[in-house]
Amino acid sequence: MTPDFAPDSPDALPLWAVWKGDPLAEQAGPWPAASGFSGKLGEICLLPDASGGLSGALLGLGDRAQASRHRFAMAHAAGLPKGLWRPFLPDDLDPDEAALALLLGQYRFTRYKGTPHDGARFICPQGADAHRIAAQAAGEFLTRDLINTPANDMGPDALEAAARALAGEAGASVAVTTGGDLLDANLPMIHAVGRAAEQAPRLIDIRLGDAGPRLTIVGKGVCFDTGGLDIKPSASMLLMKKDMGGAATALGLLKMLALTGAADRMRIRVLLPVVENSVAGNAFRPGDVLTSRKGLTVEVNNTDAEGRLILADALTLGAEESPDLMISLATLTGAARVALGPDLPPFYCDDDATADALSRAAMAARDPLWRMPFWDGYESQIEPPIADLDNAPSGGMAGSITAALFLRRFAQGAGRYVHMDIYGWQPVLAPGRPKGGLGQGARAILAALPRILA
């Protein structure tokens, strides 16, 4: 479905949003208090008119001190009746946040079961930027759909088809290098990781815009990760359809940039190394030493640390154009989740001004990120005795940092580099975030770009 707001209409019913413990709207009359309405999160109080019909409703937002994002999405989850509604917000609730929550609450993944959202519809809250909010929701819906689709229907071929479809909508150009052509194009590590799969590995290269600063986005596209010959336990494979979450988020961000007109002000390049990490006789092996596009050699000490290998070639390719800003998005390490959990992705950046802009934008966009250090003291951990780099340092400590340091070696040449170690998955139901695929970082990037690339 395409998320959007309903046109304004005099027939819309009022929906008053209320913080727990705050005075109720005078228009509500005595009915809410008589029916026990308190304003707790997600609570709905339907208001009757004089004839017994529906005159409006109250929506509880809960306690102000609760750390809950996208509260207004509870209007969908709480079962607000089907119809057209006009939201009225407390003065201290950001109208953009409320508007985004209303659209995100419409999301349903219905490819295999169920029906698209067919419930309440909303007029955009007064003061919100309807077009920009709808663009953000559309990008997020694309990301979620791509991640939620299992690998039998979202392998490298299907992910390429989705990228081509989006490029066609946005008026972007696409070039794809596949299979053995990756070797001719000097993208050897993408080929090595993906060569054992039935569907060939590839590098998808999308360009949009022809003037302004250069922005390059690199998204990890491992459509399924068995772990390779260092095979994962079966329980660890259950979520590995989401290992292309970086590519899915990059495509969602591209959709946001296209719909908001940002491509008129910058030159955007999206690079997606896309593979399946499979087990077969020609799979790359533990102990192999691979030579990257950059010429650096990499000892493979774990075939389950494959994401950084494919990203390395794509980052090298992107850096060769010396973009003003290069960003990598990847579901890269379990260590990031151990450190910060699934809801707070770390990002790495050496430039303080860029990092500050991202941190501020992440808070404003309700798309949280947390800065982590490129800690130079750990550089020696990624340098094995027989090659330039190690893809999986032993010891298990600082795994997200050492992965980021590995990638930074290949991003040299970009004006500024940001790496985001995202999770790409919502493990439990939350307002506006059903269990399943989730975009992380895209809205923060969208909000920060005007300041970073000014």
Description:
This protein is an alpha/beta fold and 454 residues long. It folds into two domains: 94 residues, Leucine Aminopeptidase, subunit E, domain 1 (3-Layer(aba) Sandwich); 319 residues, Zn peptidases (Aminopeptidase, 3-Layer(aba) Sandwich). The protein contains 14 helices and 19 strands. Helix 12 packs across helix 14. The longest helix is centred in the N-terminal third of the chain and has 19 residues.
CATH class of the largest domain reads Alpha Beta
Radius of gyration (CA) equals 23 Å
Tell me the domain tally.
2
By DSSP, the count of extended strands is 19
- Return the CATH topology of the largest domain: Aminopeptidase
Spans where pLDDT lies below 50 across 5 or more residues: none
Mean pLDDT figure: 95
Backbone structural class? alpha/beta
Termini gap: 34 Å
Q: What is the 3D form?
A: elongated
As a percent range, the share of strand residues is 15-25%
Summarize the biggest pleated sheet.
Answer: 9 strands, mixed
Oligomer: single chain
* CATH architecture descriptor text of the largest domain: 3-Layer(aba) Sandwich
In CATH, the homologous superfamily of the largest domain goes by the name: Zn peptidases
Q: Supply the number of helical segments.
A: 14
Fraction of residues in H or I helices: 25-40%
